[in-house]
Amino acid sequence: MYGIAPVTHGVTDQTAELRGIRLTETSHGPHARITRHRHAYPAVTLVLRGGFLEDFGAGQTHECEAMSVLVKPADAPHSNRYSRLGARSFIVECTSESPAFDALEQAAPQPGLVRIVVPLLELYSAFLAAAPERQVLAEEAAFEIARRQRSQHQWKTLERP
Length: 161
Known about the structure:
With 161 residues, the protein is α+β, with helices and mostly antiparallel strands. The chain is built from three helices and nine strands, in the order ββββββββαβαα.
């Protein structure tokens, strides 16, 4: 079994602890590799610069480039391989049982959700400014991600023969 790892094996540039949510800005050097591990909390990663491959095994490898979003439930074993540019990312973790935690925990590891990039950039800006609205923006982002994933699941279910 894989041990529980911190949100990043890279450099933590900044972090903020909110009520049940942790915001972290992190960076990884060029060509960094991280062996198989898992995290304790569900998380959303917005790639700000550079990129990486996140490999969940069984053919599930997600390419995460700049301005892409990756949603990941807690305890999902994966490994990482960073690009020649490395990566700078903004991570939203739900660190305690809450509706936001439950919303993200039900997500399957997946990239995408382009429409959530703008709300995450707004949250990132509030994070950098230590603005009081960080809590509300973080919760709203988690619920929007959950809502979009439920919608995608419903459409996929309807499309099956």
